[in-house]
Amino acid sequence: MTMPDTKRKIDAIWRMESAKLIAALTRMVRDVGLAEDLAHDALVTALERWPETGIPEKPGAWLMTTAKRRAIDFLRRNKLRDQKYAELAYNRDLYTEDDVDPAIDKEIDDDLLRLIFMTCHPVLSQEARVALTLRLLCGLTTDEIARSFITSESTIAQRIVRAKRTLRSANIPFEVPTGEELNARLSAVLKVIYIMFNEGYSATSGDDWIRPLLCQEALRLGRIIAEIIPDEPEVHGLVALMELQSSRLKTRVSPTGEPILLMDQNRAKWDQLLIRRGLAALERSQKLGRTLGPYTLQAAISACHAQARTAEETNWTRIVALYEALAMVMLSPIVELNRAVAISMAFGPAYGLQIVDEISTEPSLKEYHLLPSIRGDFLMKLGRFEEARTEFEKAASMTRNVREQELLLKRAAECESDEKR
């Protein structure tokens, strides 16, 4: 295996294992910033050794063992937490790649849940909570998080640094809260899971358009929280949304990795089990009898697609109505952009284009590549091929996802061919 191949595999392993490492290390040292540093030390060691020795059979366990040894060395050197160190030294937590069992896996799962509630503590601003959790639980770079927030990378970096410092100085406990405190943190936790899923569903950068493992992890966390808080409709709404969206994952890319848009997907291959689970979660949310929140409304929109046997049977009029309801509880330029798409499908591209042009000067959409992409689609359908080509090329220059860029440039080329006819 070549050096570049090894580094790509190590990067993929890190994406999968970093959250577990940081969560377990946080339980040991009670400092998320230090835990992240120790995890990165283990990654550096892997980058130094694995190109020569080969990737271990159980790389996650290897990283965990290396990181925990560094944590114990740190505790010993600093003569801190003597009681905790004694417990670690004699009873548990240090294991090798040949010593992974279900009990340890369960402990890791618990640690991940504790970590997400810790990073969503009210001592932090909501923006800081989301940014820090995405960094620690998803392994996203500051650039990827910035694009999720549609803000600058430097702003996100500052938020993360300040958040880790605040958690350390406030000595926030590493635990899942109960009662009123649990409900107080729930909104931020759900937002974290939502953004985590969206990053997996449509990656902001890299060579792949989707990151299924990130979607699976977000869905797993959502299911856990739905069991912990069964009477909160928005928890079930978010789970419903993720189940329904996940049902399309296998049809969103071709065998060679090219993106396949919703209207072109083979609906016969959508995962019917996930659709049934999603519809059941949506029904459970609606039966709780409260005003529908943003996650439940988005799940209802996704259900319209899931229940249409063909793209032509989609109830776009109902989707427009649901987007209008969504705009009332979560007004944002992105919701308006999605509403424009629904209106174009229900009533024609000219109506959608009018809405897009009205929000095109919105500052938060200045770097949002889907704005010119959607505008290009409307223009193409209206036969304004030269303008459409310009918009697709602009969108391609703005995205950092290689697959999406290729798709946009392909659509630009199609406009050029149509223009010459």
Automatic annotation (TrEMBL):
Q: What InterPro entries does UniProt report for this protein, alphabetically?
A: DUF6596, RNA_pol_sigma-70_dom, RNA_pol_sigma70_r2, RNA_pol_sigma70_r4_t2, RNA_pol_sigma_r2, RNA_pol_sigma_r3/r4-like, WH-like_DNA-bd_sf
Residue stretches making up the RNA polymerase sigma factor 70 region 4 type domain: 115-167
Q: Name one GO molecular function term.
A: sigma factor activity
Every copy of the DUF6596 domain together lies at 185-285
Which SUPFAM superfamilies does the record associate with it? Sigma2 domain of RNA polymerase sigma factors (SSF88946), Sigma3 and sigma4 domains of RNA polymerase sigma factors (SSF88659)
Where does the RNA polymerase sigma-70 region domain lie? 20-79
The record's Pfam families line, in alphabetical order, gives: DUF6596, Sigma70_r2, Sigma70_r4_2
Q: Which Gene Ontology terms describe the biological processes this protein takes part in?
A: DNA-templated transcription initiation
The record's annotation in NCBIfam families points to:
sigma70-ECF
Name of the protein this chain belongs to: RNA polymerase sigma factor
**What is the organism field in this record?**
Lederbergia citri
